[in-house]
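Q: Joint fold for the lines below.
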Amino acid sequence: MKRRAALVSIALAPVVWGARGAHADEADFDKAMRSFLAGAKPIESRVTLRIEPLVDNGNSVPVTVAVDHPMAADLHIREIALFNEKNPQPDIAVFQLTPMNGRAEVVTRIRLAGTQRVAAIARASDGQCYLRTLDVIVTTAACVEMD
Amino acid sequence: MAAAIISLPAAIRRGDIVTVRALIQHPMETGYRRDAGGILLPRDLIRRFTCHVIEGDARMLAFSAELHAAIAANPLIAFSLKADRDCVLEFQWSGDNGFVHRESRSVRFLA
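A: Joint structure:
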């Protein structure tokens, strides 16, 4: 019976965490991406998302997003958005690009409160969206909160 | 007053696609952290970054960003720019508590 109790408590653990909830959960992550996509169906191609797979310090994690796409006046990448699965908020940043950029590439540094998925979505001027997700292991989480 | 560092390549040839790096001193306080006494530290974020290209009387938005709490303190934003005209780049960061910081740089070409 002891073992059974342990299993039940494991099964309930995510619910309890969810209820305590300053963390974004998978639903928030998906919701944020759906909201950005606004009905568009993303293709999993063209986007390169570079983050070290094993991060020592979640307070400042270098991120590079590059999209293999023309940057011509009539067809270019208009937006690149970054999302995370488990920080208190799923949004990281939205970058707005123009043909003046010449290349669809951005670099920034982000906070990651623990091991999680990060997603980059690029939206082209023709409305097509491109998606890439990446699993990142974080050994020391960003102190975005203290409970 | 915040300190900001803009970096551009020292030598730019006309037509090059160059990387512009914009770094600014700012805590990017998330609004989720508490101090040692348990008091919630108020949110203090840079929310928006813009880079305009100024060419004569024309002022064109070349690149911009909306930032959230998941951007690390002292935000770094790097992006590309096609250097095909003599121009001035005008950078602006704005955010909570009326935060605004501006910088500008001329794009100079090799002779």
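Q: Anything notable?
A: The radius of gyration of chain A is 18 Å. The interface with chain B takes residues 22, 59-61, 71, 82, 84, 87-89, 91-112, 142-146 of chain A (CB under 8 Å).
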